[in-house]
Amino acid sequence: MIIDCHGHYTTAPAAVGEWRQTQVAAVERDHSFVGEKGVIAVTDDDIRGSIESAQLQAQRERGIDLTIFSPRASWMGHHIGNVHTSKYWSQHQNELIRRVCDLFPDSFAPVCQLPQSPGEPLDESVRELERCVVEMGFVGCNVNPDPSGGNWEGPPLWDRHWAPLWDKMCELEVPAMIHVSAATNRNLETTASHYLGADTTAFTQALTSGFMSDFPGLRWIVPHGGGAVPFHWGRFEGMARDKGWDLDSLLEHVFFDTCVYHQAGIDLLVRVVPHENILFGSEMIGAVRGIDPDTGRHYDDTGLYIERSGLTEDEKRKIYFENALRVFPRLDIEVEA
Amino acid sequence: MIIDCHGHYTTAPAAVGEWRQTQVAAVERDHSFVGEKGVIAVTDDDIRGSIESAQLQAQRERGIDLTIFSPRASWMGHHIGNVHTSKYWSQHQNELIRRVCDLFPDSFAPVCQLPQSPGEPLDESVRELERCVVEMGFVGCNVNPDPSGGNWEGPPLWDRHWAPLWDKMCELEVPAMIHVSAATNRNLETTASHYLGADTTAFTQALTSGFMSDFPGLRWIVPHGGGAVPFHWGRFEGMARDKGWDLDSLLEHVFFDTCVYHQAGIDLLVRVVPHENILFGSEMIGAVRGIDPDTGRHYDDTGLYIERSGLTEDEKRKIYFENALRVFPRLDIEVEA
Which end of chain B, N or C, is less surrounded by CB atoms within 10 Å? Predict the structure, then answer.
């Protein structure tokens, strides 16, 4: 059994992007635009067509049984518009994910995006999380640590601003992947510097503050292998020792995926991070789409690196699915369904 | 011969910090405050005392012959005050570094900070670079890619804003370490998330833009092992392939230091980055000051990891000093002096 904890619906039918473009154009004219949810005209066949020859085909080729699937991260765009437009967009995106999972229940489990909006409290996000989990059977959520789109203008993750969301996640027993969206700051390339920097930043905010110990059931997945963190494990370990930060306790809450696209990177990840804290992921179909001439396989075919990393069968089982079942307790139902 | 390419004067005598505190207090009262350069009353004995039992003792214990030494990075504080106050502060800091190198000419070679200031052109920085190199024998400079202090409000490194500085560096045959200063944004911890994120961002700006090919002699050292870059080498390689970015050409310009504080990190670095592009560094005495219980040595005693990384003597020689002599052509004189 292989569960990929990190997949986004990057091949959504064109009508989805068109709906969003219309909405974005409206908020560009008037930032306080509300509009209405309306309808995105996508048929089940459209969805099948967008999945079968893309994500699902790759999953089959790579032996991935199930992908924990969420809306396209770079499209979340929390910095665009306001909490109303963010709500409608999130609802559509989440309902679309639900439909993908209904059409392919054995291959996908749903994770939602949240209608975050800069400067706004998280009430709407809590509501949408509850709707997705309780009414629609979602197993987790994506939380954007920087809804300002690369300007880091909002409160850090240890700020009480975030507490209602952490409380609701604990109550519903769902984890969050801490995943930014597109960068608007021209200093930052979205999927390279912004994603990797944000991963490192989110981990550091949790480590330096120790706030997660106030939320015993809170679980995060820090994507892209944790950004720079495992490569600088000695730096973080040493700083923690110098400053009295509790790295061990943090690892009861924080997990890394395997979205690291070369052998040496995965070898390092499994060497320094406890295997209980690693979840298989590929973020396929995502930021890197080409084939590595050295392996003849896609760069993001991360199972190849896991297979060649010298792990025992027991260790691989943890990374491939056992840890995911622990981190996503609601997944159990989905897997057996 | 071992050259450490990355040392900051973090143990400067108290009078230095006091001078700066007075200046900072003045600009806090009046942002347009100019003041005057004045004098920082530090004797040669003060300097000896601050170096001999600290940096120099550690160099001797670790077998480091020469450290390329620059003002404390987190103190550069380009976001504080204005271009005038930044100029006086930089001049003092650089003159202090010159005095350290005069007192211990066999053990230190000088690198300067620049009087950058948000929103200002780089004229003063070009002038200070020329003064330091031509009049004072400096071998390189530190360039802050984000003088706004963690808010990334200025132009990216590929913007023409920076061209006068790159031109002057090429003319003078000095490289730059691309090193941020303290973060003012409370989302960012200075030496963990901000430093590592900035390293990744600087590299990405160079890779995506390809601008360095317009400056054939331009050389950067990206510190802290390149931030997240080597850990995500496959990601950068794959994205470069997808998007037509020229990673090979970039490596004619960009070098990484070895400020990665554990064995697995250094093993990865020397496995994926061409050895010609790695310069020995420790950033000692810096962000991590404790002892790793696993090795019984300081976390930042990076020579230990190099020794245990399985490199040949030829490969180690490149990393320990041959690459540094190539990247810092003006160092030659210093080494032989």
Answer: C
Length of chain B: 337
What are the tens digits of pLDDT across the range B211-252?
A: 999 999 999 999 999 999 999 999 999 999 999 999 999 999
Interface of A with B in 110-169 (CB under 8 A): 146, 150-152, 154, 156
Nearest CA in chain B to A158: B187
Residues on chain A touching B257 (C-beta within 8 angstroms): none
* A335 lies in some domain: no
Are B208 and A227 an interchain contact pair (Cβ–Cβ within 8 Å)?
no
Query: Does the beta carbon of A187 lie under 8 angstroms from any beta carbon of chain B?
Result: yes
CB distance A265 to A173 below 8 Å: no
> How many structural domains are present in chain B?
1
Minimal Cα distance from B157: which residue of A? A187
C-alpha to C-alpha distance for A78 and A85, rounded to whole angstroms: 9
Q: B247-285 pLDDT, tens per residue? A: 999 999 999 999 999 999 999 999 999 999 999 999 999
Name the DSSP letter for residue B60. Answer: H
Is there a domain that residue B289 lies in? Answer: yes
Count of positions (residues) in chain A: 337
pLDDT tens profile B99-126: 999 999 999 999 999 999 999 999 999 9
The string of DSSP codes covering B246-294 is: -HHHHTTTEEEE----SHHHHHHHHHHS-GGGEE-----SSS--SEETT
- Mean pLDDT calculated for residue range B201-207: 98
- Residue at B236: amino acid letter: F
A with B: how many residue pairs have Cβ under 8 Å apart?
Answer: 189
Q: Is residue A337 part of a domain?
A: no
- A28: domain range? 3-327
A263: left (phi over 0), alpha (psi -120 to 50) or beta: alpha
Please tell me whether the overall predicted TM-score, pTM, comes out greater than 0.95 for this model. yes
CB contact under 8 Å between B235 and A287, yes or no, is yes
CATH number of the domain to which B165 belongs: 3.20.20.140
DSSP string, B210-225: -GGGGSTT--EEESGG
Angle at A231 (CA atoms; ends A226, A235), nearest 5 degrees: 105
Is the Cβ of B242 closer than 8 Å to some Cβ of chain A?
Answer: yes
